[in-house]
Design a protein that fits this description.
The protein has about 230 residues and is of the alpha/beta class. It contains 9 helices and 6 strands. The two termini are about 25 Å apart. The chain binds iron/sulfur cluster (SF4).
Length: about 230
């Protein structure tokens, strides 16, 4: 299905305007503003984090602090800029003191994220950390056991390939996690190339992610020559 950039941008703007005054959960009480999401309205790659922190709440954009800098760097490592992808969060208002979002808050806010996914129709969804992974991949498995492993699924009626990775903030405190993130981001590049083939031209799911790269570009994906590393879970 060919994406209509103007229509998607219009739909996102309308949703953002509507959510500007959202009071569907108690996170509205402490926020400076709703942090809706940012990026290309026709992005094939969607990143989903946990929720806005201090800087995001002030500036109204996800991933603008230290973790955001690292995300930008990781993207550059696979030849992408922030403008090429879309970035959103599980909850759109800052939890006080940067605490974890509560189940009731995630339940209230997730329909907004699902609507964004319906508009964006990404091919690949990269979940950053455990909250986004739990919600999008519908699993209680620890992030350490499934990170870097892709899964084909339908999310909000859209067939996608999901790749869970560590939250970039995890690399700020534990530098070894940065190397893990860099390795997993290389897989994103290959998944984007394979997504077209795995999902079909019309976006219908065709089955598992192909074991071998489908293009010469993907074939040069470094450590990803081994199909084993992209096994589904
Ligand atoms: S977190 Fe989501 S549901 Fe809660 S007030 Fe903000 S936009 Fe509304």
């Amino acid at each position: 299905m060919t994406k209509d950039r103007e229509a998607a941008a219009r739909a996102l703007r309308a949703q953002q305007e509507l959510l500007g005054t959202c009071t569907d959960c108690s996170l509205c009480e402490g926020r400076t503003q709703v942090v809706f999401g940012v990026g290309s309205p026709v992005a094939d790659l969607l990143f989903i984090g946990e929720g806005p922190g201090f800087n995001e709440d002030k500036l109204g954009e996800p991933f603008v602090g230290q973790a955001g800098k690292l995300l930008t760097e990781l993207l550059a490592g696979i030849g992408l800029a922030r403008e090429d992808v879309y970035i959103a969060n599980v909850v759109k208002c800052r939890p006080p003191g940067n605490r974890d979002p509560l189940p009731v808050e995630i339940e209230a806010c997730s329909p907004k994220l699902m609507e964004q996914i319906r508009i964006l129709r990404p091919r690949v969804v990269c979940t950053l950390g455990r909250f986004a992974t739990r919600l999008i991949a519908q699993t209680d498995a620890p992030i350490t056991s499934i990170r870097g492993r892709a899964k084909a699924a339908e999310v909000a009626g859209v067939p996608v390939l999901i790749l869970p990775v560590f939250h970039p903030a995890a690399a700020l405190y534990t530098p070894a996690n940065k190397a893990v993130l860099e390795e997993d981001f290389q897989k994103l590049r290959v998944l984007l190339a394979r997504g077209q083939d795995a999902l079909g031209q019309d976006g219908r799911k065709q089955g598992a992610v192909p074991a071998r790269p489908v293009s010469q570009e993907a074939a040069t994906g470094g450590a990803l020559d081994d199909g084993e590393q992209l096994a589904l879970w």
